[in-house]
Amino acid sequence: MAISGKEREAFEKKLEAYVGLDIGVEDHSRNPINAAMIRQWCEAMGDENPIYLDSEVASGSAHGGIVAPPAMLQAWILGGVAMAAGEDDPADKQRELHRLFDAHGFTGVVATNTEQEYLRYLQPGDTVRARTVIESISEQKATGLGIGYFINTRSVFKDQNDDEVGSLTFRVLKFEGAEVPAEASGDSGEGSPAGPPQRIKPALAHDNAWWWDVIETGELPIQRCAECGVLRHPPRPMCGECQSTDWDFIRSTGEGEVVSFVVIHYPEVPGYTYPLVVAVVELSEGERFVGNVVDVDPGDVSIGMAVQASIELVDDELKLPVFRPVSV
Amino acid sequence: MGETRRFAEVGVGDALPALPIELTTSLIVAGAVASQDYTPVHHDKKAAQAAGMQDVFMNILTTNGLVSRFVTDWAGPDARVTHLSVKLGTPNLPGDTMTLTGSVREKDDAAEAVVVDVTVKNAWGNHVTGSVKVILAAGD
Amino acid sequence: MPTTLKNEAAIVGIGETEYSKNSGRSELALASEAVAAAIRDAGLSPSDIDGMTTFTMDTSDEIEVARAVGIKDLTFFSRVPHGGGAAIGVMHQAVMAVATGSAKAVVVYRALNGRSGARYSEGVSGGPTTSDLIHWSWYMPSGLMTPASWVAMFTQRYMHLTGCTSADLAEICLAQREHAVKNPRAFFYERPLTFEEHQSARPIVEPLRLYDCCQETDGGAACVVVSPEWAKDLPNKPAVIRAVAQGAAGNQESMTSFYRPEIAEIPSMDIVARQCWEISGLRPDDIDCAVIYDAFSSIVLWQLESFGFCKKGEARDFIQDGALRLGGRLPTNTHGGQLSEAYIHGMNGVNEGVRLIRGTSTSQPEKNEHVVVTAGVGIPTSAMILGQS
Q: What are phi and psi of A249, to 5 degrees?
C-alpha cells in the first residue's frame, strides 16, 4: 500500500523542491566527434547511410560532408567503462531524488519515454556538453507496475561555440515494489520468463481433458449423447435433452460459417499476434466453436463467410483448431 | 540504403518497408559498447539475471539508433532527422526478432518534413512505439 | 405475506466515496466509507442496520464491513454472482429481505480498486483450476479473454443484422458525456467529447473503440433499503421499489453465450424486463428516465429493446434526435454512466436512480415519476423500477 495522508503530503512537499533544479553535474564529450566512434556505431546498427562514412557521397549530399548519426547524441557524453562500477556522483541531484523515492518505498525504476530533438547534425571535430534539469514530477499515479511517480528530465546539449545542438527528455517511473531494471519493461510489467512467450494453456479437468486429447491427434471432436444422439459443445457431463451421462464423440468435418467475429487490438498479450481475429463459427454439424481466423486481412472477414478448420500448432506446444476462409 | 526520397512524392499513409532484425547477444553488446553505455545489464548476463531478466537486453540508445536507421534507410541520404520520440515497452532479448514497421502520419509543408509513426514489435509485444520527424529532400 | 415485490421496500439513503484512478486505500476502506455515508444519508445509525448484501466479486466480507462501520447484529446477509449482472440482483436480495421481514434495514454495497488494483481490461488468465477457468479455457487459447472482446462478439452480429453503426454507438457516448460534464463526481467532469474524437479513437476490440468502453475506477457506492412505512419517518424522499427482478435465460454462459440460435440479443434481460412490467403493472410509456448499465456503449441499445422502449433491432432509430439526452424521450445515465462517471459495477447507477427520484441529479429531467435501473448484460442479470412514494 502506498504511503498516504500526512506522510504522503510531507513526501510530496520534499519532491516539489526538486522540480526545476539543475542536477548539478555537467556531462561532456571525452573525445571530439570522430570517425572511429561513428564507424563503430554504424557497424553495430547496420546503418549504411553514406553520409556517416563516405566523405565523397557526404560532400555531395544535403549535409555537405561527414556527419554523426543524430541518435548518437547521448553516446558522446556517456561514461564508458566507468559506468560498469555503478558509482554515483554524490553531487548529482537526480540520484539524490531517486534515493529519496527509494527511502519511501518507491524502489522500482523503469524508463518509459524518451524524446530527442536534433537542431543540427554534429560533425567531426565538434565537442558537446550537456546540462540536465529535473523538469517535472507527476502526481501519484496508478500504473501497470504499481503506484508511483513519473519524473521528467531534460538535457540540453551545446557545442564548442555554446550553441544548442539538441536536447533529450527522459521520463522514468519510480514505483512501489520489486526492483525492475531500467529499460527492462514498460506496459507489461513482467520480467522475462525463459523462452519465447506461449499462448495461455487450457485448464484440463475431468469433463474437458478428453477433448484436448483428441485435438492432439489432429481431429476436431464434437461430444455426442450416446443415448439420444444430440451433439453438444462445449463438452459437459450430462445431456440437456435426455439427462443421460453416456456420451461419445464424432469427428467434425471442420467446415463452417462465421456467425460473428471480433478484431482484438488491446490489450496485447504475449504469445498472440495482433490484430487478432476471433470468430464464433457454426460447424456444418450444427454446433458452434470459437477460434481464430488466420491467413486473412481482418478487414476481409465477414459474417456468413465460409471457413474450414484445421488443427495446428499455434505456438511451440499447443494444438488448436484454427479457421481459414474457403475460396469459392 | 535507398535512393533519396523527395518530399513531393511522399503521401500521408505511405508505409515504410518493414525491417526485421534478429536479436543476438552480439548486436545487443555491440550497440551498448558503441553508445558508450557500459551498464552491466547490457553486456553481462549474470548482472542481467541478478536484475530479474533472463539475459542481457538492448539499451535505449541502440533502440533509438535502429529506429533512426529504419527511417533514414527509407528517406535516403539527403534526409535530416529532427525529432525522435519513443514510448518504451517490452525488452529486446537475444533469440527474439524485432520488427520495425512505420507509416507517414503527417506532412509539414512549411518545413518539408514528414512525421513517421514507428512500431517495433518483438515476441512479447511492443518493444517501442513512437515517431520520427524527418526533413526530406526538396524538389521532384 | 406479500405476493409480489411491488412497493414492499424503498431506498432511503445513498453514499459513495470519491471516484478516482488511485484511491490510495483498501477496498475494505472504500466499502466502509460508502456504507457509512449511505447510513448517514438515510438518517439512521449503524446499529439500525441488520442486513447486508453485495457482489460475489467484492473482496470485502459483509461481517468485516459491519465491524468496521459499527453495524451490530445481522439477521440477513447474502451475495449475488456474475459481476455487473449483480448490480440490481443485490437490490432484489434487499427487497426480498425487507418484504419478508428477514431484515428491517439492508445496506447494499460494492467497492473496488478497479484501476489501481486488479483491472478487468487485463482479462482472465491462468490460476488454479476452477470450473470458471475450465470455462474460460474454451476462449483463452484463441485470445478471447476480456469483457470488451466478449461484448464485441455480440455487437458485431447485432450491427450486421440491424444496420447499426459505430456512429450510432457514438450518440450513446456523446449523450452520456454531456451529462458527465456537469457532474463533479465524474471522471470526465468538464471534459466534453466530440463525434470526431469518438470516431477517431483507437480500436480496442473491433467494432468497439476506446470511448465505447467503460472506465476502470477506484471507489465504492452503497445504499440503504427499508420498508416504505419506515421510510416515511426518515429525512430523505424515498425511492420506492415498484419492481425488481433477476434473469438468466437458457443456454447461458457467464459472458460468452455464443451458442444460442441468435446472439444479437440478450434474452436474460428480456426475462427481467417482463417481470418488471408484470410486478409493477407499469408500461414503457410510464417511465420518464433511466439508468441503463453501460460497461460498453452497445449494450445500452439491447436493453432499450428488452424493455420495449422500441422494437427489436430499432434502438438505433430510437436514440436519434437526442432521446437519451435531457429533454429527450428517455434521459438516460444522467450521471454520465460507467462510460463517463465511474465504473462501480452499476452501484453508482443505483445511487443515480435514487437521485433522479429525489430530483437531485446534476442533469435532472423535469419528469421523474418512474425510473428504470438495470444491471450488466450478456451475463445473468437484473433490473428494477423506482417510483415516487
A: -145, 160
Per-residue pLDDT of chain A (328 residues; tens, 9 = 90+): 567 788 888 999 999 999 999 999 899 999 999 999 999 999 999 999 999 999 999 999 999 999 999 999 999 999 888 888 877 778 899 989 999 998 998 988 888 999 999 999 999 999 999 999 999 999 988 877 788 999 999 999 999 999 999 999 999 999 886 544 444 444 333 444 557 788 999 988 888 999 999 999 999 999 999 999 999 999 988 998 999 999 999 999 999 999 999 999 999 888 999 999 999 999 999 999 999 999 999 999 999 999 999 999 999 999 999 999 998 6
What are the chain B neighbours of A179 within 8 Å (beta carbons)? 51-52
Which residues in chain A have Cβ-Cβ distances shorter than 8 Å to B51? 179-181, 184
CA distances from C66 to A278, C33, C39, C203, C347 (A): 45, 11, 12, 43, 19
Cβ atoms of C215 and C338 within 8 Å: the answer is yes
Contact C243, C348 (CB under 8 A): no
Whether chains B and A touch (3+ CB pairs under 8 A) is answered by: yes
Q: Return phi, psi of residue A89, to 5°.
A: -75, 120
Chain A to chain C, count of Cβ pairs less than 8 Å apart? Answer: 132
Annotation: CATH topology of B7-135: Thiol Ester Dehydrase; Chain A (3.10.129)
Report the C-alpha dihedral over residues C134, C137, C140, C144, rounded to 10 degrees.
-90
The answer to whether A84 contacts B40, with C-beta atoms less than 8 Å apart, is yes
Nearest-CA distance from A38 to chain B in Å? 8
Q: Tell me which residue in A50, A181, A194 faces B77 most closely, judged by beta carbons.
A: A50
Q: Smallest CA–CA separation between A301 and chain B, in Å?
A: 23
CB contact under 8 A, B78 and A62: yes
Residue of A nearest to B59 (CA): A183
Rounded to a whole number of angstroms, the CA Rg of chain B reads: 16
The x, y and z cell numbers of residue A5, run together, are: 495522508
Q: What is the model's pLDDT at position A188?
A: 39
Tell me which chain C residues have a C-beta less than 8 angstroms from the C-beta of A287.
259
Packing angle of the helix pair A93-103, A5-16 (nearest 10 deg): 180
Domains of chain C by range and CATH?
A: 10-117+214-387 (3.40.47.10)
Do A207 and C134 touch, CB atoms closer than 8 A? yes
C120 a catalytic residue: no
Helix intervals (H) in C101-250: 131-136, 147-162, 166-180, 195-200, 228-232
Residue A328: all three cell numbers together = 469459392
C343 is catalytic: yes
Contact residues for C41 (Cβ-Cβ < 8 A; gap 6+): C13, C14, C15, C224, C236
User: Where are the domains positioned within chain A?
Assistant: 5-26+85-175, 209-325
Topology of domain A5-26+85-175, per CATH? Thiol Ester Dehydrase; Chain A (3.10.129)
Q: How far apart are CA C4 and CA C282, in angstroms?
A: 14
The CA distance from A96 to the nearest CA of chain C, in Å, is 25
Q: Are strands B97-108 and B19-22 parallel, antiparallel or unpaired?
A: antiparallel
Interface predicted TM-score (ipTM)? 0.96
Q: Which of C141, C146, C152 sits opposite A200 (nearest CB)?
A: C141
Q: What angle do CA C327, C328, C331 make, to 5 degrees?
A: 90
